[in-house]
């Protein structure tokens, strides 16, 4: 293959791939959840990452807010909220500086239906749930 042909192929590849980078509609939103433990965090992040178009999903457990970077050509904020809800959690779009509705405390089968405050007093449940190392 001659240098001229190689150069033409490189130019063609750049021409074809450039729009994907230049016109990519990458957006970021925050989703308020009712997660309360590492198990919740892992489940919510996995649910979000399964959605086509999600580039990153990171849940900050103390604030209960998931920051999600996504391609708006492939998904939308409402669908991301639904993905969290399908995973068994309450979720809403977080509004910086706006009014955010408080979500009810999460109760899950891994907590035997108890809230975090209830089961954190029970060392047997706590050991099985929130303090257990979760495989990511």
Provide a descriptive summary of the structure in words.
The protein has 136 residues and is α+β, with helices and mostly antiparallel strands. 38% of the residues lie in helices and 18% in strands. It is built from five helices and four strands, in the order αβαββαβαα. It has a four-stranded antiparallel β-sheet, with helices on one face. A hairpin with a 4-residue loop joins strand 2 (54-60) and strand 3 (65-71). The longest helix is centred in the first third of the chain and has 20 residues, at 3-22. The chain starts with a helix and ends in an 8-residue tail after the last helix. The model is unreliable at 119-129 (pLDDT under 50).
Brief summary of the model shown:
The protein has helices at 3-22, 38-49, 77-86, 116-119, 123-128; strands at residues 26-33, 54-60, 65-71, 91-93.
Q: Report the order of strands and helices.
A: HEHEEHEHH
Structural class: alpha+beta
What is the straight-line distance between the termini?
Answer: 46 Å
Give the beta-strand count.
Answer: 4
What is the oligomeric state here?
single chain
Identify the overall geometry. elongated
Global Rg: 21 Å
Percent strand: 15-25%
- Give the number of helices: 5
Largest sheet: 4 strands, antiparallel
> Strand arrangement, largest sheet?
2-3-1-4
């Amino acid at each position: 293959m001659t240098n001229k042909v190689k150069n033409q192929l490189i130019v063609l590849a750049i021409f074809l791939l450039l729009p994907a980078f230049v016109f990519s509609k990458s957006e970021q939103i925050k989703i308020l959840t009712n997660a309360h433990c590492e198990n919740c965090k892992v489940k919510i992040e996995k649910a979000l990452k399964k959605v086509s178009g999600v580039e990153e999903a990171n849940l900050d457990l103390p604030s209960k807010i998931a920051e999600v970077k996504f391609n708006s050509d492939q998904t939308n904020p409402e669908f991301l909220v639904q993905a969290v809800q399908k995973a068994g959690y309450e979720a809403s779009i977080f509004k910086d500086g706006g009014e955010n509705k408080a979500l009810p405390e999460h109760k899950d089968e891994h907590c035997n239906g108890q809230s975090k405050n209830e089961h954190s007093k029970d060392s047997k449940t706590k050991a099985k749930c929130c303090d257990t190392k979760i495989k990511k």
